[in-house]
Write a structure and sequence with these properties.
The chain is mainly beta. It has helices at about 1-15, 45-50, and strands at about 30-40, 60-65, 75-80, 85-90, 100-110, 115-130, 140-145, 160-165.
């Protein structure tokens, strides 16, 4: 009876804790990295300052690196307490954000209002913290460069520096 009860308890714990999913994912199509981005433009333009974007402004960012550009585009999301904004590359093939790229801004606010399709450019350098290229084993990335129409503010161009760590699969 005790063996049977022990087996049932372990079986329930395995289901609840996802023991069957403890191995590495095989068909992962993207990697997520999360961290902070700092505005390093000093001073920012009046257009930026009118929207409270100034030197030292900090945003939480999530970078989605694609392992399969045919199915998932790279994106860089800026999340705040009232809204989230995202840029995605519009350049095929590959849809990479690394380098001088045409990008599209979109966003959503706390009232589920969606803003889309502000087309602009960015010039970002995205590098792994260690190694030469981003792979499934990359633990962190740095992002530096210029973003036009920052946070969907037309005419606000800033330089950012960001450090991000890998989110678990």
């Amino acid at each position: 009876m005790l063996k049977c009860l022990t087996f049932v308890v372990f079986a329930i714990l395995a289901v609840l804790t996802g023991a069957t999913g403890a191995q590495a994912q095989v068909n992962v199509t993207y990697l997520d990295f999360e961290g902070r981005a700092f505005v390093t433009t000093n001073p920012t333009s009046g257009t930026c300052q009118a929207q409270q974007i100034s030197f030292g402004s900090v945003d939480t960012v999530v970078y989605r690196f694609t392992l399969n550009p045919a199915s998932v585009r790279e994106s860089l999301s800026f999340t705040g307490s009232r809204e989230s904004k995202r840029i995605e590359s519009t350049v095929a093939p590959g849809y990479s954000l690394n380098g001088l790229k045409n990008v599209r801004w979109d966003g959503i606010d706390t009232r589920a209002g969606l803003t889309t399709d502000l087309l602009t450019t960015s010039d970002l350098t995205i590098k792994p913290i260690a190694g030469t290229g981003i792979t499934k084993t990359t633990t962190g990335v740095t992002i530096t460069g210029t973003v036009n129409d920052y946070l969907f503010v037309t005419g606000c161009t800033v330089t950012i520096t960001a450090a991000l760590v890998r989110r678990p699969d």
